[in-house]
Amino acid sequence: MIIALAGKGGVGKSSISSQLILQLSKKGLVLAVDADPNTNLPDKLGIPVEVTIGEIRNRTVRDPDKIPGGMSKHEYVALEVRRAMHEHDNIDLLVMGRPEGEGCYCFMNNVLKECFGDMIKKYRFTVIDNEAGMEHLSRKILPRADVMLFVSDPTRIGIRTASRLSSVASEVGMEIGRRILVINNLPGELPQELSDEAKANGFDEVAVIKHDLLVYSAGLEGSALRLPDGSELSKGVSGILKMII
Length: 245
Ligand SMILES: Nc1ncnc2c1ncn2[C@@H]1O[C@H](COP(=O)(O)OP(=O)(O)OP(=O)(O)O)[C@@H](O)[C@H]1O
Ligand SMILES: [Mg+2]
Fold this sequence. Notes:
The chain is of the alpha/beta class and 245 residues long.
């Protein structure tokens, strides 16, 4: 099952991704993909990162002669991608890293797309933490999601933005099974205004996560986000998992 997260900047995509990954890793092997060039999922998970996909991509485009003789570009990239996998308990973390440099990337992106396609099949769960906005999705390296979580702050305008992102995802040709609106950082119960706004924007499924003081403290410490089961973010995320698996 492929779960992707989208939303405008700072709404909680990476925090929610990290808890989804940790909770899912108790059920099976998880491929965690940090698709934000401003990499911060590894910090939230507490998994140190050495190599990014962006580095492999740039290196291979810049210097194709590095590919050992007798090896196809596809084989080489597949091998490098496996080497860029950071394994930790039941979590395999891949970090996309910085975007493309100069040069022609079409071939390389096609190879990566094939590699990911092959790889994802081996995992029970894949969680993709996207950067704010949707532009990069048009590259279609990761073109499909069984569930797309559109994360919003607890405001009407935030929900409208999430809905626009949902339209953009369709426009760039992403195949999406279920679309769920996640209203994060709620100070209390879900007000009627926000559930009306969700409905008016075509979201039939809505999950809520309350403001979590433990997340705030972890942010102050800059530590990995390991939360007790009873914390608001953990409870919200387990609510989402009950909806989808
Ligand atoms: N439920 C919550 N309760 C309290 N604080 C939260 C909650 N969710 C997120 N935060 C805080 O909000 C801030 C932004 O969260 P996060 O980095 O997860 O958002 P993001 O959508 O991934 O941001 P970006 O677009 O920059 O990648 C962080 O400081 C995080 O600790
Ligand atoms: Mg983020």
